[in-house]
Amino acid sequence: MRIIRTHEDIEAGLAGLVMLDARLEHVIDKAGPVPLRRTDPGYRGLANIIVSQMVSKASAAAIWNRMEASLGEITADAVLALDDDDCRRVGLSRAKADTLRRVAAAATAGEIDLDAICNAEAVKAIHELTAIKGIGRWTAEVYLLFCAGHPDVFPAGDVALQNAIGHALGLELRPTASEVDLARGRLVAMAQCRRAAILGLLCAGNAPRCASRDALKKKSGSFTPFSLWLHNPVATRLI
Question: Is 238 helix (H, G, I), strand (E, B) or coil?
């Protein structure tokens, strides 16, 4: 397993994709440079992802800044020392505060090693992370992508990724998480160890949003779902 640590690792992954299907070269040229989005693994990295769940970037940044102002260094021990009033003052919901505490307790008790898990296979790592109540698959996958640099992760439930897929494939309708998950095996069967490179490529550009199902139904009364695109023998030659 080749961990993604540098821009050279990203370039190697993209080059490998072009070797497998030369038509992806046009997509790579159109997307432009794929940024290296890495942060350090450990409790702080996972905590930042938990704080970012289901809120805007601006809201997440504000909460995180208040946590840093209150705690200084954000560690498992520091979070365990917070009481409910402290959590409310920094803007943490009860659910997020509880999740941060559960992860902190598991880390300090040695029940999970957030550094060592970065070297585990994706399925095993996701299983261990999601065993903690409050950590869903999206959170686990994003941790492995951005904190571990794991090359074999593809978070189908990420709305930005769904939108990027819709844009890349010229779809009016954004595919659902289940549709992306179903297609994931076909998208990466030819390059399992390059899932992260595919994801980076899809998300490198600023893709306009695809319509939701309800919005498109109101506008046109019908739409072509992603599932039909997948069964189009012409379209699926790309994957």
Answer: helix
Of 48, 50, 63, 132, whose CA–CA distance to 96 is shortest? 50
Q: Please tell me the distance from the alpha carbon of residue 158 to that of residue 140, in angstroms, as a whole number.
A: 12
Q: pLDDT confidence of 214, banded at 50, 70, 90? A: low
Q: How far is CA 154 from the centre of its chain?
A: 7
- Rounded to two decimals, the pTM is 0.72
CA 125 to chain centre: 14
Q: Tell me the C-alpha to C-alpha distance, in Å, between residue 195 and each of 1, 132, 137.
A: 12, 25, 16
Instruction: Note the helical H segments in the chain.
Output: 7-20, 24-31, 43-52, 57-71, 76-80, 84-90, 94-108, 122-130, 137-146, 159-168, 177-188, 195-203, 213-220, 226-230
| Residue with tokens 């601006």, as numbered in its chain | 58
Q: Is 38 exposed, middle or buried (0-12, 13-18, 19+ CB in 10 A)?
A: middle
Q: Are 198 and 158 in contact (CB under 8 A)?
A: no
Rounded-to-integer distance, Cα 69 and Cα 50, Å: 18
98-120 per-position pLDDT tens digit = 999 999 999 999 999 999 999 99
Q: Which amino acid is at 205?
A: G
Residue 229 is predicted with a pLDDT of 38
